Amino acid sequence: MLLLANPGHSGAVSLPNSWALDPAMGTSSAVLCILFFCGALGQGLTTLPARGRLHCYTCSFAKPCYPVPTECGDDEACGVSIGTSEQSEVIQRKGCLPRAQCPLPGHATYWSRSYTLRHHCCDQDLCNAAPRPLLPTLLLTASFICGRTLLL
């Protein structure tokens, strides 16, 4: 039985003999295995984001929107800004917005056209994702039903 000390926790972690480090593995392999186990046990090598700040999707007015997760500032919320021009063209962007800006209308210029913005804000990680499109689901269902009818 192999015992690994788990710093910061009481006791040790025991592993089966089949998991023991073989001297033929070399020092670098042994170090990598130990680092892996420390990371797997939640020690040191984690890449989890710090708690406290929101993480929101961000993308510009450009279409299509390829949202990228972003960490917001202390006084920011996740938001979706929807702009409408005088010609009834609609644009949309996502990102972190100052909380004070959320209830207020805004203005933006995009491709030399003026838009009036409405902001929709939320306070949970990645809450400003787009709703799932209904059309592909309907098309898949319709093709299944039609295909089944044709096969009968």
TrEMBL record:
Coiled coil: none annotated. Residues 53-129 form the UPAR/Ly6 domain. One of its GO terms (molecular function) is acetylcholine receptor binding. One of its GO terms (cellular component) is plasma membrane. GO terms for biological process: acetylcholine receptor signaling pathway; desensitization of G protein-coupled receptor signaling pathway. This is UPAR/Ly6 domain-containing protein. It comes from Myotis davidii.
